[in-house]
Write a structure and sequence with these properties.
Helix content is 19%, strand content 31%. The chain has 374 residues and is an alpha+beta fold. The two termini are 29 Å apart.
């Protein structure tokens, strides 16, 4: 959601000073704080690697993501199969599953950003698609496209557009007329922030220079209940570097219209992580806190329809999992860390704030790939 602000600023009137500060943080214009690197024996996060989404109908979801501009990796077999590693990872009984590995190429790095889509059968799955964009525990990712209006119309023509925004249209940032961004959902209610690409702009009229927004996924987000607790987990523990501690509460039609709300009061904290696929680049993990929308988190299983998760690559997984548990993270399964056929080791945990699902994985030392192979 933060990228809304980065798109909208022409020369900034004095009345928008506090909002401009938030824009600096959200756009990546403020230098991140440098935090101490933990000793190697304690394990550490290498980078943010992927997101995953649990779907009701894999074929329908693949069609949607292709229309959105994603490609399907042919090396990942989407056929139904039994996966004992997955059963241990999730702490569930015998099921059948199928998966599609979808990706976009991030223009800034020419590397893939992966979205895993997974369907299961042989167990009861609740459908959690019916939620708002501000429910605690809800996740999203930001997708920049070359022409947001064209993408919007393509989805609409294919009867695949599930818009959250006011009027079902792209929203124009303040002071502009062109619709440039809005929230929509995939077929299972999982949120995507669609953003129009933006060229770089030089400093002008007291406004700092703005970097270009290039096509690709530029952030992953999570709605949190307690930002202090969430920052302690995703920042202090997982190693995100906070862009700025300044996070003023924001409100108004612009923030409401893009997500289809009314009267929301919210703030953003952006934790900067290395992009696991491109170590010289970064991705933001955006913690969104709604002041006036706090309510108990709806308990979810990782197998439920409409559940999302995020994957982080780790070095020293055994030691790091102990730190995660000490910090209040909870593994899903008594099996703990499980090993894939490729030798990649992984564990799924819940964060201590909203119970958000986080997959931590470690490749064999000789591996260079940055995403899990399932």
């Amino acid at each position: 959601m933060t990228r809304w602000v980065t798109l909208r600023f022409a020369p900034i009137p004095p009345g928008l000073a506090s909002l401009a500060l938030a824009a600096c943080a959200m756009a990546g214009l403020c230098a991140p704080a440098v935090s101490a690197t933990p000793p190697a024996e304690q394990g550490k996060v290498v980078g943010l690697a992927f997101v995953g989404r649990m779907v009701a109908d894999l074929d329908r979801s693949v069609a949607f993501y292709k229309e959105l501009g994603f490609r399907q990796d042919p090396a990942a077999n989407p056929a139904w199969r039994r996966d004992e590693v997955l059963e241990h990872l999730y702490g569930i009984g015998s099921v059948e599953t199928r998966m599609a590995k979808m990706y976009v190429i991030n223009s800034s790095t020419q590397q893939h950003f992966v979205v895993y889509l997974r369907e299961l059968r042989g167990l009861n799955r609740r459908n959690l698609a019916n939620h708002t964009a501000w429910d605690p525990g809800v996740s999203h990712f930001g997708l920049i496209v070359p022409d947001a209006q064209q993408t919007w119309e393509q989805l609409k023509a294919a009867s695949l557009l599930h818009a959250r925004s006011w009027g079902g249209e792209l929203i124009a940032p303040p002071g502009q007329k062109k619709g440039m961004l809005a929230y929509l959902t995939d077929p299972d209610g999982l949120d995507i922030e669609l953003i129009d690409q933006r060229p770089a702009a030089p400093a002008e009229g007291g406004r700092p220079a703005r970097p270009a927004l290039l096509p690709g996924v530029n952030h992953v987000g999570l709605v949190v209940l307690d930002s202090d607790k969430a920052r302690a987990f995703y920042g202090d523990l997982l190693g995100g570097h906070l862009l700025t501690t300044e996070a003023p509460w924001l409100k108004g039609d612009f923030y409401d219209s893009a997500v289809g709300g009314h009267g929301n009061i919210l703030r953003f904290y952006n934790e900067v992580f290395t992009d696991a696929a491109a170590p010289s680049s970064h991705l933001n993990f955006e913690l969104v806190e709604f002041q006036n929308r706090k309510k108990p988190v709806v308990p979810a299983s990782i197998t439920d329809i409409g559940v999302g998760y995020v994957g982080f690559e780790v070095q020293g997984l055994d030691a790091f999992v102990k730190r995660v548990e000490a910090a209040g993270g909870k593994p899903l399964s008594n099996s703990g860390i499980v090993s894939m056929r490729s030798g990649t080791r992984e564990v799924m945990v819940r964060d201590p704030d909203v119970g958000g699902f986080v997959e931590l994985f470690e490749h064999p030392k000789k591996e260079a790939s940055s995403t899990a192979s399932r």
